[in-house]
Structure formats: C-alpha cells, structure tokens
Amino acid sequence: MEDSILFFMTMSLPENTTVLIVGAGPAGLTAALSLAYHGCRDFVIADATVEGKNASRAYSINSATVEALASINAADGLLSQAIKAKSIRIASRGSQIFEAKFDPLKKYPAYPYPLVTPQNVTELALGQKLKSLGVKVQRPHRVVGMKQSEKDSRITDVSFEDGQIIRARYIIGADGARSSIRTIAGIGFCDPESPNLVSDVLSQMVAADVTFEPEPTGPLTLEGHLNGTVSSDSFFMLIPFGNRFNVELTRDGEPTTKSVFRVSCAIPVKNGEPPHAPPKEYIQDMIDTYGPACITSDSSLNRSPVKIDQLFWSARFRTHSAIADRTFTRLGAAIVLVGDAAHVHSPAGGQGMNLAIRDAIFLAEAVTKHIQASAEDPDVDDTILQEIAKARHARALETIDFTKKLLKLASLGYDPYAWWMPFSWASIRDLTLRILGRFDFVQSSVAWGMSGLGRR
Fold it and tell me: Tell me: the pLDDT tens digits for 379-412?
C-alpha cells in the first residue's frame, strides 16, 4: 500500500483516495502528518500554488501547539530550529510598562515556552517530516468543483482546474480564508458578532522582516523576548529573530550575517491604506513614528540612530474575525474544515496558526477513527466527526473572543476621556499593568493565556 501511494504522490493525481487534503500550509501539512501517525496512509495532499509560501508571516508556536505536534511525533524539527521565548514585554516608547515571563508555565506542560519561528520555517520543518514519510505535496492543483458521486452516495468527485478528477471519501479543507472547499460546499463564513468581517479596532496592519545599520542594541533586541510598544493610535511589535533563520528568510538572495527583526504595526485608518507590499521607506517611517526608541532613526529618541539596511519581506493585512457556519458537512464525502478555512481572527496573541495546527491534528485523528469504524460497519453514523467538529468550532469562538479582548485592550487611546476626567483609558491601563505586573499570579495568568493550554 505504501509503495503504491508513493508512486501516486510522485506522478499524476490518482483517480481514487480515501482522504483528500486540499491546501498545504501549516494546517494541511499537519493534517497529513496526523493521518499518517494514526495509521491512515491512503491520502493525497494537493495545493494550488507551485511551491509553498516563502513569506515568514506568523512567527509564534505556543505551548499547547508544541504539545500537540509532539503527540504525533512532529515537533522535533521545530524544537531544533526555533527560539524558545522567554517573555512578552509591553512598553511605551520611553519606558517599560509590563513584562510577563513564561517561567510559570514550567509547572504545566512538557514544553513551557512558545517557539519563535517564521512561518516559512515552520512549513519547511513540517514538509520535511512529511517527506520523510514518503509523502509529496501535489502541486499545482486547484480545486474548481465538487459533486456527489453517482455511483456511491458517500463519495465526492473533486474536479481540478487541469481537468483531473479525484474520487474521495473524506475531504479536509485546509485551503485558507478564501477556501474553495468551503465555498463550493455552501458553508457560510462571517463574524460571529457582526455581518461585517472587518473589525473597526486596529483594522489594518503592516509586517516586515528587516535588518538595521548599525545593528541596534539593548534589552529589546535580545532573542527570546516579544516586545510590544503602545502609543496613542497604534500598537507596534518587535520580534528579534537573531541570525538563525537568515538562510530561509533570504531565499531569493545572499543570506545576511546580520540579525533579522520582525516588525509589525497597526496603521491608523486616518493614514490611509498601506501599500500592498510596503517598501523600505514606508517601513522606516512606520518604525520612526510608532516603534521603540532603540530601532528608530530619530536622534531625538535614539542616541544611536539606526536605519533599515535590508527589507526581506513586507505585507499588509486586515484584522478581522470570521467563522464557518459549521466545520463538518457532507456532500457525498465527509468534509471537514481546518485552519483559516474554518475561522480567521486578528493576529493578537499569535493564536491563528496555532489553532489551525491543533484543528488539523485533532480532526485528522477523528477522520482516521471514522475510517476504522466504517471498515467494521459501512453504515456507521457521523457522530465521531460531528462531535470533534462541534468542539473545534467552540474553540474557535473562544479564540475569536480572546483576540478581540486583546485588541480592545491594545487600542485604548491616550486622549483624555472627558474634560472633567483628565485621564485616558490607556493611561489607566498602563498604570494597572505596572501595578499588577509585580504579582506572580498575574504573571502566571498572562503566560497561561498566551500558551493556549486553556484552549487546546
């Protein structure tokens, strides 16, 4: 069986498969690894792109996700490459407000720290693990249609843009927020609280990977610390990658020997819409306006001004929330949605890719259980799939609520609330964090919330 599967994986698409995974991002790759770990090897994983995305995008894998990956023997590659995070810091441009260390997590899981790693490095590690199992992602194959088989009511004929058709008993839709699988299956997708997908709080952001000249120094530039800077109308994140990912982050050019930094920032709506791929000048202005003093070129803020040297990647994106009406349905085959195909939300707290990976692990395990149950009883009902889909839908709603609360906290303004109250909500937030941050139970609470362990 394994030899025949490997043959199909390296040649044209097979006519039949038990499971078809559509999408080969972190969710799709993890779904394939979970299927293989739990004993299902009759699957095909196909993606619409010629090669995987080379953008770094998401950068954090939290404790709950490391734990879940380890449960299917898929964490070693990431653990060997990633930076083990030590703390998250919140500061104004001039002084520190709050620091939550991840040390309190040592009493909970086997992996008491988030991992800091660019998304393309995560995908590379997962892809290499899958390749070691003899599985190759089929590219480029774009799904354009699905219909119930005329010969078997529990099979779906999946059509691809190149004219090929695969007959599948299970379909895992891991094809992103614009999921073809979700759309063709007729599953709705909207914000659970509003018909408008776009949040009005910190609604647009820009992210980039850069080096500086000269290289900045100071506590915020040390590996393992996630640094947030609050200002009157923005929130800025600085993540030091060091130089351990330089080869992967500079795939189209000569690897740099300098430390690479991830910068991301909310762009006020009053500033207009950011460019599609913001240039170096735009990122520099963003840093000078909203970033911490240690990485600005403004000599009035930084005694040793620095400027961007190289820009490796940049992107704009919107912070919005949406969730599929349901995560499981039938169109002949059993269809389950994972990752962004099932839910999207703001990047606050770094929960998106983490929830996607855990979705994939748990749903793929349920699919293998259903396959095994069907082998014993061809008329078995869908309870196994319905229950896990319901549970993952509930987790997604919890995560959307969590990220919205973080956004609201981060977006509080420094303008006085009213003429009769010369304080702002942001100044009250900062004072509260300064006071509460001294207590161990607050440190533990923040670390627990960021870990995802309460929302496995």
Answer: 899 999 999 999 998 888 887 777 777 777 777 7
Nearest to 215 by CA among 246, 247, 264, 260: 260
pLDDT tens digits along 21-67: 999 999 999 999 999 999 999 999 999 988 765 566 788 898 889 99
Dihedral-angle region of residue 210 (phi above 0 means left; psi in -120 to 50 means alpha; beta otherwise): beta
- The pLDDT tens digits for 83-128 are 999 988 888 877 888 888 888 787 777 888 889 999 989 999 999 9
Cα–Cα distance, 235 to 409 (Å, whole number): 10
State the amino acid at position 392 in one-letter form.
R
- Whole-model pTM: value is 0.89
DSSP one-letter code for 421: B
| C-beta of residue 291 within 8 angstroms of C-beta of residue 308 | no
Distance (Å, whole) CA 404 – CA 443: 21
Cis-peptide into 118, omega within 30 deg: no
Residue 421, strand partner residues = 418
Cα gap 343→190, rounded to integer Å? 9
Alpha-carbon span 118 to 241, nearest angstrom? 8
